[in-house]
Amino acid sequence: MATKQLYQTRPLECWGKAKAIREQYYRDYATAHERGGLRWAGGAWTFGAIPAGLGDDVWSITSEPYAASIAANKDFSMRCLEATERAGYARDLCSYMRNYWGSVILDEYLWGGEFPKPDFIWQDHICCSHAKWYQVVSDLEGGIPSFCIDVSVGPYETVNERKIDYLVGQMHDGIEWLEKVTGRKYDDEKLIQAVYNECRATAVWADVCTLNKAIPAPLEEKTMYSLYVLGTLMKHSKQVADFYEELRDEVRDRVADRIGAIPNEQCRLMSDTQPPWGFLSLFRYLEKYGAVSVGSLYTFGLIGVWEVKPDGTWGPRTTPQELGIEITDRDQALRILADWNLSKPEWQHFYSPHLKTDMMVRIAREWSLNGVMLHYNRGCEGLSLGIAENRLGLIEAGFPVMTFEGNMGDEREFDLTKTMARVDAFMETLGFKKEG
Amino acid sequence: MFDKLRDWERHRHDYAKDWKDRTGGKVVGYFCTYAPEEIMYAAGVLPVRILGSHEPQDVTEPHIFGMYCPFCRDCLAQGLKGRYDYLDGIMISQSCLHVRQAYTSWEKHIPVDFHYYLPMPAKVQTPRALPYLTGELAEFRKAIEEWTGRTISDKDLDKAIAVYNENRRLMRDIYDFRKNDKPPLTGQEAMEMVISSQMTDKAEHNEELKKILAGLPKRNSGREPGVRLMILGSEDDDIEFVNMVEKCGATFVVDDHCTGSRYFWNGVEPLENRLEAIARRYIDRVPCPSKDWEDRTRVQHIVDLAKAWNVSGAIVIQQKFCDPHELDIPAIRKALQGNGVKTLFLEFDVTVPLGQFKVRVEAFLEMLVEEDLFD
Amino acid sequence: MITAGIDMGSKTVKVVIIRDGEIIGKAKTLAGFEAGGAAEQAFAQALDEAGIAIDDVEAIVATGAGRKNAPYSTRDITEVGGDARGVIRLFPSARTVLDVGAEEGRAIRCTEDGKVLDFALNEKCAAGAGAFTESMSRALEVPVEELGPMSLKSTKSIPMNAQCAVFAESEVVTLVHLKTPKPDIARAVHDAIASRIVSLARKVGYEPDVVLIGGVAHNPGFVDSLERALECKVIIPENPEFIGAYGAALAAAEA
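The joint structure predicted for all components is written out below.
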């Protein structure tokens, strides 16, 4: 039975560019020293704009995307996980960490050669593992100077001067520390530009996600992963901000031309938490039902920064530039950076799952969803936090929910066949039949 | 000698209900030992720690994903089963992710008059944490004042701090007796002492502690101490397990976990700004692993305890799925072993297979005894 | 109209043949390694019992974990869909279905039309299926069919971990060494499985009438534990392990 063709499809033109940017990123990190530059490691949420003030020859590797890339590579992933277990680390720890450490222990870089040791660690802390991940990295590498900023000051709706002061105080301390550790003089102008870029990149990514409210959805989540990842690598870079604008313009065209991500869209879903990275074919399976995942709070709000617009709907947060704010000094730049990041949707649920439920219900309504697929992700206690309450809240709000247990980075804990059987049962309850 | 404390520990709900009848005061349940109890106590509120009951249950599945620690689910189960119906409020001072869920689900599904989420800083190692937390405590004090309808003056805080400091000092004094070659109290009694402190009005608890302290020098425990052990972990209040180990020819002489020394090890040092003094105490205390970074300060502390209490071996308890503690365990074991203290690792659920554990413990003790023979 | 349903379970294959909603033939065999062949065998037996030939069957639908490998069927439905259909047909008052088979436990909430509102399945950490009773009966050295009646003789409730089958098995070994009476251990095992199933039931929010199906429904010890944990009685159809196949046969008649 052939797939119904309800909508026209078109390959994404800027797809190749996204891939190239990502590959270059990992090459730049590895070759940093050869070019007399610096390299550092930290999480995807870290305040990457700050080390940018050390110079234009400073490159980074962010842990989660690197680990996700390993997870997509099943053989290498298994060797990494086993190496970590042999070193005495528990199997139920964050699976990103276990893949990353394994790569360090084996001294094998996913893109070839030895694992390039960072000059310093620059991290932020919101889940219990975040700072401690790098304690182990430092142990494994014989000691690496580390600085980690605590961001756990409560949900954005409670933000006040004192909470901003707490973050900004640490940031100021961090800059002094960076100068000491690297021996470089800090350049506030570079920091300011990085902050502008970060606000632009993350707001424009939210804009891209907003365009998926259209029916048919111009993008589907599997593709979006490969695009949003750039924000997890270097959200503060001009290159990523520029790329997202290019992407946004192309997606606007797709909406205008009624281009669908899949030709037979009839069931709109969203997912949540990271997907099982080694099994993205699950999204292809959904397409047999004409089902498409148009995104998730994870894809929208981990990099994207949002606000409620005057018309009551969700849209990209207005950037300082758009508000006509001119950043003139270090402290101002840091305050804006802190405030901007604290409003990030994916940080709110750490304080209450009910805040996350509100956002998910909003997405379900504004993006016109038929149902929700929740990945009870054993590999990430941070993003799976409160997920059972999210399920209850979504059901209460009238949205059918399907759950499946798995692991974003450990294939031993994910059963694709069983999960597809659940999708079958879920589609049956929603009244959609398989085709093709 | 410890009967009263044991009784309080076992009948914690009866105690709290009775306290309410006697005093007409309010009771607030807290989920983590970073709770600034002094502030609540200063307002005449009794803070009690919410702990589980070590029974299998089927009520938390809709609320908390099964991969979060059994302890946090056990805590929520107590609320869902109505065992804490007498609570007037709940609060949490933010620490690990897992137990947060017990608080947030409780807040939504179990009616309470008052609930408060205190965003206690995770980076206790930064000097910026002190002014931040001091400010948060001021907000918390205001919330308690509004709820109870009474002002909390500096005098009130001083009184509360005095009671709490005394409680801590008394327990430390009692812990010192465990350094003796023949400790006059068992690890089980010590655990019951600390847990009962978390369940009761500390003014009353202090009275019992003073009696115990007076009697300890003359007390003959009537048992051979056997191998000197330390117990350390994430949350651990499995008294049955401690009892089993001590029956195998060993005594727990010291510990590091939050139903043990981590709860009371340091006191509040006086400062003009009382809230700042309280904040200082909670920032400086022996950290929960979730707050122990960038440096791992807890490791040295554990080694110091092991040395000072002359410990032969350490049983490392791992609450199933507890990430923060799991992240520290390799470093802790390495440090202990490097200092001549052998370790036994055991993974815990809310119920444990005592028989299987006994086999491992006996083998561990045998190994330690043989070591001593050949020293 | 004559239709048939084939339930390709992980341990056993069940075939049900119906005429106008009534069962006229049924059979069950072990799935083994060659489940397709086992299914053909069971189908032949069921036809025999019904006194008809395969050409008399107008439509055949498969269900169960191995449904993609079922012979003869023209389409398949999920176990969840099959269970709901089968139960509602027999018990129009049913609103919750608990299906406990060899490898999987499920809770299903449905409407009076047999439409599935929500469902929950056993996850990774779970001692909530029939295979667990089998390994426990081996540990107690009792034939598996005696485990149920034996547990009813118990008067004591011993808490046992229900999250992890490995932990639970450890606890059983401990109890055996402590010379705990076998009925008490048997009851603890059933309580543990029931606790898992009730967790699933709570996840979907169970309401009466609650119907129990699947092979483990034959175990009176488990039923007792389940009713105590649910705090309500459950309805158990005749031939509870055939209800999935029955539902598939009903689905075959729908198309």
